[in-house]
Structures are given as C-alpha cells and as structure tokens.
Amino acid sequence: MNHKKLRRLYVEERLQVRRRIGRKRAAVTRVPLVPARGPNQRWSMDFVHDALSDGRRFRILAVVDDYTRENLCLVADTSLPGGRVIRELEAVIARRGLPRQCVSDNGPEFNGLAMLGWAQGHGLDWHYIDPGKPQQNAFIESFNGRLRDEFLNETLFTRLAQARVELEEWRRDYNTERPHSALGNLTPLAYAARNASVPQQAGALRIPEGFAPRPVATPDLTGPNDERILLPAG
C-alpha cells in the first residue's frame, strides 16, 4: 500500500485530527488610563471564584465605580457568559446611567464579539488591561481582595440562593456603613452623594440632555438697533 492509498483511506474513515481554530475576539488598542474625576466616569469589573459546601463552584461578577469606590453589583451564578454579563450591566445602567468607560481583563466574557458590539452600540469606551498585569485594574483587584478576606473566606454557603442574599447584604453594608480613608473617611454612598454634581457640571455642555450652569450676571437686553433711543449730546 502506497502513501496515496493510505491517505485516501485515512480521509474516508475520518481519522484525521481536527485542528482547533481560535475564537474571534475583540481587537482593541490599549492606551493609558486617565484618572476618573467624577462618579460614573469609569467602572472596573472582574470575576471572583468560590464554592458551595458540597464542592460546586460558582462565580461572582463584581463591578466597582473607580471614583466613589461604590460596589455596583455582585452577581453570583454557576455560569456567567458574555450575554449574561451584558444583561447585568444593563440592569445597573438602568438605575444609574451609562458610564463613560469600563475597564476589565481579557477574559472571553469581556473580550468577545457580543460585548464589543454592545459597547460600540452604546458608545461606551472599553479598556482592556495588558495580559498578566492585574495591577492595571487596581480598583477592582483591591475590592476583590477585601471581599475574599472579609466575607468569602469567613462564610460557608450551602446553596446558591443563600450566597446571593448574603452577598447583597454585604454589598449594602460596604456601600453605606464602611468608611474609606481614600474618601476622607466617608462611606462610598456618602462620597457619591457629595460629588453627585461633578459629572454633570463637567459634561453639561457636551450632553444634549444636560443642564449648563446659569450665568452669574444678568444678560443685557437685546433688540433691533432702530428701536434704540439716542440722547442728544450737550
């Protein structure tokens, strides 16, 4: 048997090993991050992993406002694909408004074509950190470490429903009762309330629905030139 007949039989019996083709992902240009200067300007997000008492693994989607340090959501489930992440972000946007920028790692949930299309459809700037450099996403990494040390490592979950309830209770306590030294010893919610007008003032003239500050001086009365009365000199 020559090599030609061997190859033909090999193909007819479908014995060839299929080559795996990499999934298409978003191709983005990475630029340095500009510090957030107001609430809702930049959100950071990442996943945290944990397990139930019976060994079943689950994931937690955490989203943080970089300026106010507010924890915007903690979503726990056994699977959180890109489409589910989009739905959870839309729920946060419905009650809070659209951010200017989001920061994440290069995971398939964030770097897939579905997420890229959704972000482009909303005019949302999505920033991906460099692979292997979690320090570029420091806000969410710091939050995840606190969530792990202070809550996940100290709590035993028997059911996923229990994990969801207790995560929400911890999130509310974190936002309303926990002062931060970086925020002048204010809670994230109090700091957000004090700085609520920052993004509106900074972007009022750029947002069609925004309200620009009123002028301090009263504007001069205007009218046609022929209606003005000229006083004679002398």
Commentary on this structure:
There is one protein chain. The protein has a domain of 162 residues: Ribonuclease H-like superfamily/Ribonuclease H (Nucleotidyltransferase, domain 5, 2-Layer Sandwich), CATH 3.30.420.10. It is 35% helix and 15% strand. The protein is elongated, with a radius of gyration of 27 Å. The C terminus is likely disordered.
Quick gist of this model?
The chain is 35% helix and 15% strand.
Characteristic terms for this protein:
disordered C terminus; alpha/beta; 8 helices; 234 residues; five-stranded mixed beta sheet; single chain; Nucleotidyltransferase, domain 5; elongated
Strand order across the biggest sheet? 3-2-1-4-5
Identify the CATH homologous superfamily of the domain at 42-203. Ribonuclease H-like superfamily/Ribonuclease H
Based on Cα principal axes, name the global outline: elongated
Instruction: Specify the biggest β-sheet.
Output: 5 strands, mixed
Oligomer: single chain
Number of strands: 5
Query: Radius of gyration in whole Å, from Cα?
Result: 27 Å
Assign the CATH topology of the domain at 42-203: Nucleotidyltransferase, domain 5
**β-sheet strand percentage:** 5-15%
The termini sit apart by 124 Å
Count of individual helical segments? 8
Low-confidence stretches: 199-234
Structural class: alpha/beta
Order of helices and strands: HEEEHEHHEHHHH
Average pLDDT? 81
Helical amount among residues, as a percent range?
Answer: 25-40%
CATH architecture identity of the domain at 42-203: 2-Layer Sandwich
